[in-house]
Amino acid sequence: MTQLPHGQRLGVEMVSQLVATQFPQWAHRAVVEVLPGGNDNRTFRLGDDLLVRLPSAAGYAAQVEKEHRWLPVLGPAVPLPIPVPVALGAPADGFSYAWSVYRWIDGTTISNDGLPDAGASACATALADFLSALHRVDPDGGPPPGEHNFGRGGPLATYDAETRASITGLGTAIAGPAALDIWDAALAAQWTGPPVWVHGDVAAGNLLLREGRLAAVIDFGCCAVGDPACDLTIAWTVFAGPSRETFRDRLTLTDGTWARARGWALWKAAITLVQHVGSGSGEEAAALRVVNEVIADHAAGLV
User: Fold this and answer.
1) What is the rounded average pLDDT for all residues in the chain?
2) What are the phi and psi torsion angles at 224 (to 5°)?
3) Widest CA span of the chain, in angstroms?
4) Which of 92, 231, 232, 276 could form a disulfide with 261 if both were Cys (CB 3.0 to 4.6 A apart)?
5) Across residues 262-268, what is the average pLDDT?
């Protein structure tokens, strides 16, 4: 159960009350929390074919109406299913933010162990084709990067101080000089192209699989129009070896874009690793692997 401001508690009881009050046609449906839950939002199944999605804090609330505005525009233009808004809920019954009802999409998220080799390249191809189609959607009127999506699609310089502090704080746990070289190269490779649609959080938890194949892309709360580099970090967080090569080769993007993508991957991994270094946790191992693979690829002149 999620703790919200002013003693609010987000759980099955509150969600059931919100649904019954605002959408009585669904009041008879069972509400079941989806676990494990995300950080930005909490999700509850509403019967067999719907879900309720609610922001967990004020910083994510602006994403709700954005998704309702733009998902119907993006959905028909991309080759994989994305969330379909069904209803927009209002703050009420002790809950302070707007919230959403969507169609349920069957599938399982990619595990922390990544993808099996047999399906990884096919998944890389499908995701690259999805992103290419997303980049072709008319960006006119789309939201620029900002607080609503934590700067995804905007300049990496937003995270300069944080990244440098994290690299310094990691000491000898990583190859610090090499990491700083990657970061400097990413900052130097500034985006000069026209803005394109970006998902903003292409991560394992936002990709759904069915029978080992990529079946859907979910959670567009960080979407915006800007620099596509932020969507390429999956090259190091999930893909490796042949599947990473497939992902890059399928996307017709510049070397500068991939340099910035390395920067995005390094930023997130470094700020995560500095919080968990020495813990022996799965978070430490995953973040350290990403840092090391970004450094190795950069040294080899690869992605």
Assistant:
1) 94
2) -170, 180
3) 60
4) 232
5) 98
Within 8 A by CB and 6+ apart from 265, the residues are: 232, 233, 235, 236, 237, 290, 294
Question: Do residues 290 and 272 make contact, with C-beta atoms less than 8 angstroms apart?
Answer: no
Answer yes or no: pTM beyond 0.85: yes
- Spell out the residues 6+ positions from residue 136 whose beta carbon is closer than 8 angstroms to its own: 77, 196
- Supply 71's token pair: 């998902």
Q: How far apart are CA 230 and CA 155, in angstroms?
A: 10
The residue with tokens 């069957």 is 106
> In angstroms, rounded to a whole number, what is the distance separating the alpha carbons of residues 220 and 96?
21
CB-based burial, 42-57: b 16+ in 10 Å, e otherwise = bbbbbeeebbbbbbbe
- β-strand partners of 236: none
State the Cα–Cα distance between residues 283 and 269, nearest whole angstrom.
9
Distance CA 132, CA 257 (A): 14
The predicted pLDDT at position 114 comes to: 66
User: At CB < 8 A and 24+ separation, what contacts does 103-106 make?
Assistant: 103/49, 103/50, 103/51, 104/45, 104/48, 104/49, 104/50, 104/51, 105/81, 105/208, 105/215, 105/216, 105/218, 106/208, 106/210, 106/215
